[in-house]
Amino acid sequence: MDPQIMDGLDFPFCDEVVKYEKLAKIGQGTFGEVFKAKHRKNKQIVALKKVLMENEKEGFPITALREIRILQLLKHENVVNLNEICRTKANQFNRYKGSIYLVFEFCEHDLAGLLSNHNVKFSLGEIKEVMRQLLNALYYIHCNKVLHRDMKAANILITKNGVLKLADFGLARAFSISKASGSNRYTNRVVTLWYRPPELLLGERNYGPLIDLWGAGCILAEMWTRSPIMQGNTEQHQLTLITHLCGSISTEVWPDVDKLELYSKLELPKGQKRKVKERLKAYVRDQYALDLIDKLLSLDPAQRLDSDAALNHDFFWMDPMPSSLAKMLSTHNMSMFEYLAPPRRRYQQGGAQPPAQQQQQRAVASNDAAFDRVF
Amino acid sequence: MAECRSMTVARSTSRETRTHFKVITYMLESGTKLQMDSVPMATACLIYHRFFKECLLENHDPYLIASSSIYLAAKVCEQQIRLRDILNVCYRTLHTDRPPLEINDEYWELRESLANCELLMLRVLKFQIAFELPHKYLLHYLVSLKDWLSPSVWADTPIAKTAWALLRDSYHSDLCLRVKPQHLAVTVLYFSLQCNGVGVPFNDDADKQWWQVFCEDIVESKIQSIIVELINMYAMEMNV
C-alpha cells in the first residue's frame, strides 16, 4: 500500500504515544530505550519502552512479541505491570514506519541504582524482604512456565513503597519440561555474562528455571558487595571466575557435566576448592545468608535450590524477619536507576558486556578496562 | 422497506461467511504444507476471525490477512516460520496455475506487504496476543473419558480422532469467537460420541451428566445449538 494513503486514516485500536509527555530517558532495555513519561490528562506517571523496529526483516520482533504475550499472561504483585501498547504516527521523518511503545507502571528505583548509591543502606531485614519478593516473583513465573533469562540487579525495579517488580522480559520465553522423545534446544546466548550460570557457559541448551536461580544467588551476594560479584570479560574468563569462587567444575561435584558440549573444549582450572562462604564472609555477616548464597550458587543445576526451596530456607525465617523497605526509601527522594547513576566504583567497563545478540550497552561505562574483582 | 434491508444484510452476511470459509480452507491447506501444529494453526484462524470482527471484508484482501495470520500465530506460538517460506507456500496454494514465485520485485513487494500487514493486525488486535484455545480442554476431557470407557470401545472407535477433526473444522466459521473454549471442547466431544454411536457408561444413572463434570456452566441445549451451527457449517461446504 502507498504509505501516504495511511495519513488520513483514523486508527481507533491503538492509542498514540503523544498522550504521554516524555520526561527523561531512564534506561536502555534489551530492545530499545526506556523513558519516564506523564499522561498529559490524568498526570499518571509511566515508563515507556520503545520497540526498535528498524532493520527488521522478519516483521515485528519476536522478542517484543514474547515480552508482550508473557506480560499479558503474568499478573503478580512482584512482576512489572504492562498497562498498554501505544504507537507513533508514521510520517516522512521515520520513513513511514511508526514505532511501538510498551507502557508500564512506573517504578522509582532499580536495584542496581540503589546499590550504586552508598547513601542507601539496607538492613538485614530489608535485604531479606528484597530477596523474598524476588524469589516470590521467580516462583510465580516459573509456575507459569516462563523463564526470565536476564536476571540482574538493573532488571529488578523497586517502587518508593518498597515493592519489588521483576522487569525486562525481553529475553524471556516459555519453556516446557523436555520429554523423553527429545530435549529442548533453546539458545544459550542469554543472560548478562556476569549473571550467567555455568551450564549455559558450557553450552547447555536443554535448561530450565534453575538458570534464573543462579542469578538470584549473584544478586543476593551483591546486596552486600554492592557490585556484581563475578565480572568476566569473556565466557572463558567468566568460567574461570566461577571456578575461583565455586571450585573446579568436575564430574565429582557435577555428575553430568561431561555431557555438555563445551566441557572438553574450554579450559577449566583444576584443583580449585569451593570457597563461596570463605570469600564472601568478609561482606556477608549473616550465616544463613551465606548458606543460602552457597546453595543458590551450586555449579550443578540439579543440586541448586529452586525458588520454593529457597523461600523455605532458614534465612527468611530467623530474626530479623523480612521488613518493609518503605521507611528507608522514604528518606531518599531521588529516583535511582543504574542508567542514571555514576559508574559503580569497581565496575568493569562496557566491553565486558556479554556478546549475546541483544545485550544492552551500559550507557554510563567507565573507561577502566583493567579487570578487577570485587573481593 | 426494513424487511428488504434485513434480507440484503442476511444475504451479504452469508456471502461473507462463504468467503471466510474458503479462505480458512486455504489457510489450513497452507498451514499443513508448512507443517504447522494444531495449536498454531487454530491460533492463526482465531486471529483471522478476530481481525474481521473489527474490520470490513471489503476493505481488506482476506488472503493477505490469512497469510499474515499464519505468520503471526506461528510467532506467538513459538513455532516460528520464516517469512520466505510462508510467502512461497501461500503463493503456491493460491496460484496453482502459476509457476513458483521467483525472487524478483513481486517477491519483495509481497514480503513487505506481509510484514506490514502483521503490524496492522497487531494493532487491530490491540496487541492482545495471549489466546485461550479449546485444545488443552479437549485433551484433558479425552484423557479423563478414556479411563471411563471400556478399552475395546476406545480402541475400536475413532472418538478422539473425530473430536479433533471436528474442532479443527469448526474454525471455518467464527464459532471460536462466540463460544467459550471449554464449551467448544465439550461440544465436539459430545458430537464425536454421537457420530460414533458411543454412550458414556452409567451416564443415565449418574447424578451429573458427563459434560457437567468437565464444564459446570454448560447445558445440553447449548451443546445442541452449537452442534446445529457445526452442521450448518458443513452444509456450507457444498455452496462455496
Automatic annotation (TrEMBL), chain A:
<feature type="domain" description="Protein kinase">
    <location>
        <begin position="20"/>
        <end position="316"/>
    </location>
</feature>
<feature type="compositionally biased region" description="Low complexity">
    <location>
        <begin position="348"/>
        <end position="361"/>
    </location>
</feature>
<feature type="region of interest" description="Disordered">
    <location>
        <begin position="346"/>
        <end position="375"/>
    </location>
</feature>
<dbReference type="InterPro" id="IPR000719">
    <property type="entry name" value="Prot_kinase_dom"/>
</dbReference>
<protein>
    <submittedName>
        <fullName>Cyclin-dependent kinase 9-like</fullName>
    </submittedName>
</protein>
<keyword id="KW-0418">Kinase</keyword>
<keyword id="KW-0723">Serine/threonine-protein kinase</keyword>
<comment type="similarity">
    <text>Belongs to the protein kinase superfamily. CMGC Ser/Thr protein kinase family. CDC2/CDKX subfamily.</text>
</comment>
<dbReference type="Pfam" id="PF00069">
    <property type="entry name" value="Pkinase"/>
</dbReference>
<keyword id="KW-0547">Nucleotide-binding</keyword>
<keyword id="KW-0539">Nucleus</keyword>
<dbReference type="InterPro" id="IPR017441">
    <property type="entry name" value="Protein_kinase_ATP_BS"/>
</dbReference>
<keyword id="KW-0808">Transferase</keyword>
<keyword id="KW-0067">ATP-binding</keyword>
<dbReference type="InterPro" id="IPR008271">
    <property type="entry name" value="Ser/Thr_kinase_AS"/>
</dbReference>
<feature type="binding site">
    <location>
        <position position="49"/>
    </location>
    <ligand>
        <name>ATP</name>
    </ligand>
</feature>
<dbReference type="InterPro" id="IPR050108">
    <property type="entry name" value="CDK"/>
</dbReference>
<dbReference type="InterPro" id="IPR011009">
    <property type="entry name" value="Kinase-like_dom_sf"/>
</dbReference>
TrEMBL record, chain B:
<dbReference type="Pfam" id="PF00134">
    <property type="entry name" value="Cyclin_N"/>
</dbReference>
<comment type="similarity">
    <text>Belongs to the cyclin family. Cyclin-like FAM58 subfamily.</text>
</comment>
<feature type="domain" description="Cyclin-like">
    <location>
        <begin position="25"/>
        <end position="123"/>
    </location>
</feature>
<protein>
    <recommendedName>
        <fullName>Cyclin-Q</fullName>
    </recommendedName>
</protein>
<dbReference type="InterPro" id="IPR006671">
    <property type="entry name" value="Cyclin_N"/>
</dbReference>
<dbReference type="InterPro" id="IPR043198">
    <property type="entry name" value="Cyclin/Ssn8"/>
</dbReference>
<dbReference type="InterPro" id="IPR048055">
    <property type="entry name" value="Cyclin-Q_first_cyclin_box"/>
</dbReference>
<keyword id="KW-0195">Cyclin</keyword>
<dbReference type="InterPro" id="IPR048053">
    <property type="entry name" value="Cyclin-Q_second_cyclin_box"/>
</dbReference>
<dbReference type="InterPro" id="IPR036915">
    <property type="entry name" value="Cyclin-like_sf"/>
</dbReference>
<dbReference type="InterPro" id="IPR013763">
    <property type="entry name" value="Cyclin-like_dom"/>
</dbReference>
